[in-house]
Amino acid sequence: CPRQPAPPPLAPSRARQESRLGQDGQVLAHRRFTLANWSNENASARRPRRRLRHEAQQAQPGRIGEVGQAAALKLAFNQLIASLSAGFAYSLALVRSAGVDVEGFMALLRASALYAPTFDKKLGRTLDGDFANPNFPLKHLLKDVRLFGRVAGETGLDVAMIKTIEAACARALGRGYGDQDYSALYEAMVPRQGSR
Predict the structure, then answer these.
(1) Cα separation, 172 vs 193, whole angstroms
(2) Torsion-angle region of 66 (φ positive above 0: left; ψ -120 to 50: alpha; else: beta)
(3) In this structure, what are the phi and psi dihedrals at residue 107, rounded to the nearest 5 degrees?
(4) φ, ψ for residue 147 (rounded to 5)?
(5) Digits of tens for pLDDT over the chain (196 positions)?
(6) Is the separation of the CB atoms in 93 and 186 below 8 Å?
(7) Where are the alpha helices (DSSP H) in the chain?
(8) Are 184 and 172 in contact (CB under 8 A)?
């Protein structure tokens, strides 16, 4: 079959907002314009697929393993989003409630092995309490956390930690943050106004 010309590249603002996840785990990564193609298929068995975005066409797909392993890998990464977010929110809530200078805390954190770039990406939203225009809403994080908990439980893993994160996500959702950015998880860590 003749090769089709590459589609025109997305405008950077739209490309940053786009994320794709196909049945076999194809992901167009946010903001980095890179592709991770996670698949359980051998290269010779790949069936023709709809064209991916121009930015992604340069990436070489890799084989993860057997059926279900790419999905497990995706769940593992999504669980890290939840765990990192919950851990950072909890620490930030304690720092703020103790009156510690947030920038001093961040300077020490940035210089440590504990630092993850997502902390700075979500810091402004969290400090401002502005969770509008999400790149990933809290309700989707909750869905992923629940799915991870189910799969982890089925494989015999202890699910106590993920259940705690699930409860925090559900509390924030109950406070009306479901369609807001997942960094609104912070709101589940702090007392409601007037509850002190």
Answers:
(1) 14
(2) beta
(3) -60, -45
(4) -65, -45
(5) 445 444 444 444 333 333 333 333 434 343 444 445 555 555 544 444 444 444 445 566 777 888 888 889 999 999 999 999 999 999 999 999 999 999 999 999 999 999 999 999 999 999 999 999 999 999 999 999 999 999 999 999 999 999 999 999 999 999 999 999 999 999 998 876 543 3
(6) yes
(7) 12-17, 69-97, 102-110, 117-128, 138-154, 160-172
(8) yes
**Dist CA 163 CA 148 (whole Å):** 10
Structure tokens at 110: 């940035």
Token pair recorded at residue 25:
């785990």
Partners of residue 63 on adjacent β-strands: 39
Residue whose C-alpha is closest to residue 92's, from 52, 57, 50, 123: 123
